[in-house]
Amino acid sequence: MKSLFLAAGVALLVLPHSAAKGAAMTLGGPLSRLCYESAISGDARPVAIEGCSRSLQEEPLTTTDRAATLVNRGILHMMRGHQADADADFDAALAVDQGLADAWLNKGFLRLRQGQGGAALPLLDEGIKRGPQRQALAYFARGLAYEDVGDLDSAYADLRRAHDLEPNWSLPGRYLARYQVRR
User: 8 with 41, same domain?
Assistant: First the structure.
């Protein structure tokens, strides 16, 4: 019989700011593109959030671009620690486009940051089901959520999958190194 346990004994449930790499691509107007670039680069200054808001108010965005811009503004709010604003933006994005994987994933990332792995799991599952652009990030986050609820077998499997999908991304490997498999 095989069993897994965390070598460190305690899971560090910290979703890195690189989660912002889960930004939603938009081809809307110049302000929505700047909003996307701010989310990708991690530029969460108030002026970046204001640019996102102006895009939503002033630019003629398609439904997809509106949802993506809401996700990107939500990411910036999340990075600034404005959890309620981030949650509201992710909800608004889902109200516009239920099929947007990045909205589900970022809502899950937010729950992880709040220490609510159990609440993150169904959100991350839905995001993965919808085919995110950066699958490794989605599996990594779900692995952290599984750790949070004590399902180490599922956590290890998702962390392994994240590592296999993006072998040059070091973070999954660092988390996997904390595990030991015992027979």
Answer: no
**pLDDT, tens digit (0-9, with 9 covering 90-100), for 16-46:** 444 444 676 665 689 999 999 999 999 999 9
Q: Pick from 135, 132, 142: which is nearest to 169 by CA?
A: 135
User: What's the pTM?
Assistant: 0.85
CATH number at residue 53: 1.25.40
Mean pLDDT, residues 109-124 taken together: 97
First to last CA, the chain: 5
CB atoms within 10 A of CB 29: 17
Q: Are 128 and 142 in contact (CB under 8 A)?
A: yes
The count of domains in the chain is 2
Q: What are phi and psi of 181, to 5 degrees?
A: -100, 125
Name the more confident of 20 and 131: 131
